Amino acid sequence: MHRIRVWDLPIRLFHWALVGAVALSYYTMKTPGAPFVFPVEIHARAGLVVLGLLLFRWGWALAGSRHARVWHFLYRPRAMLNYLRSLRRGSLPPYAGHNPLGGLAVLVMLVSLSVQALSGLFLSDDIFFQAPLYDRVAAGTSDALRTLHHWNGQLLIVLIGLHLVALLFHRLKGERLVGAMVHGTKRLDARPLDVADESPVRDAARPGRAAALMLVAVAAVAWLWRL
Ligand code: HEM
Ligand code: HEM
Fold first, then answer.
1. Which tens digit of pLDDT belongs to each residue from 23-60?
2. Which atom of ligand 2 lies nearest, measured to the CA of 180?
3. pTM attached to this predicted model
4. Could you identify the atom of ligand 2 that is nearest to the CA of residue 110?
5. What domains are defined for the chain?
6. Hey, whose CA ends up nearest to atom 32 of ligand 2?
7. How far is ligand 1, taken at its centre, from the CA of residue 21, in Å?
8. In the Cβ-directed half-sphere of 78, how many Cα atoms lie within 13 Å?
């Protein structure tokens, strides 16, 4: 049995906070009226939290620990095809971090989430609410971004659905990914293909960077919040 520290604390905090803030963003928009009536402000504030989390995550994708870095989990198309072929043969190649398909899916999800949060900054509901940067663009641009916000919001629901189906698939194949996103350690029967030396993830070695990135994200969100 191979036990590998895979998700550092910042990634785990990021993930579960993201789940909460995205859920609130949808809840406040998709369920008008029941059981509570939310003003658009609450939706926008949840969206701003999503934006702050993503700012942090993009920084961490460049400067974080091994499995958090985008160059570590973004594979060549050939590796993705090989992974797909293995799945079709019924085997599940062992990976500590995101596997080649999962890495692509995560990247697409992070981009789509970013488009959603950024486009929201320029919207208005045409009644009471104007987002922080609404008056910085022409009315036509804001309308186009509203269409983008709507359709990308639908796409995100599909991506999140696929994310959950993929997790279920791995669970049925005996791989417990959810636990690893809670406590950080993944258990694999075989040696993972993406870890050459099995040295531990050095999350403790980068608390300064994590804190600096968090500070930048909080400052950006606080600035937008007050606009
Ligand atoms: C990732 C975070 C976000 C998600 C998942 C999200 C999702 C949504 C959804 C599903 C709608 C309904 C659109 C429709 O179906 O027509 C909506 C509308 C809206 N969102 Fe967001 N949103 C996010 C971030 C933001 C942010 C950051 C702001 C502003 C700061 C914002 C402002 C608005 C406004 C003003 C509307 C109403 C637009 C209208 O009345 O047509 N959103 N959002
Ligand atoms: C709003 C819903 C969700 C969103 C937007 C979301 C988003 C994400 C993102 C962006 C990642 C990549 C993490 C990173 O490297 O930064 C991820 C990974 C992960 N998520 Fe979610 N997630 C959602 C719901 C859930 C739920 C409900 C669960 C558990 C039941 C879950 C479990 C996981 C796990 C286990 C991973 C790691 C996958 C792996 O090992 O490759 N997610 N999620």
1. 999 999 987 665 567 889 999 999 999 999 999 999 99
2. 35
3. 0.94
4. 10
5. 2-226 (1.20.950.20)
6. 178
7. 12
8. 0
